Amino acid sequence: MRREPMRRELMRREPMRHNPERIAWTVLLVFFGMCMSLGISVPLAVRAFVNDSTEPGDLLLDVQQGTALLRRPASADFAGITPLDPPIIIPEGSVIRVDQTTQVVLTLRDPRSDVNLAVVQLYGNTVLTVRAAHRPRFDASPNPYRLDLYVEGGRLRISVLNGVERPIAASVEAPQGEVRLGRGTFAVEVTNDELQVTSREGQAFVTAQSVSVVIESQQRARVALGQPPQGSLSSERQLIVDGNFADGDATAWAVEHDLQVEQETRGSVTYRSFSGRRAAVFERTGRSHAATRMIQTIGRDVTDAAVVRCDDNGLVHLQRLLAKQLHHAMAALGVQVGGGLVGQHQSRVLAEGAGDRHALLLAVAQLLR
Question: Model pTM greater than 0.85?
Answer without folding.
Answer: no
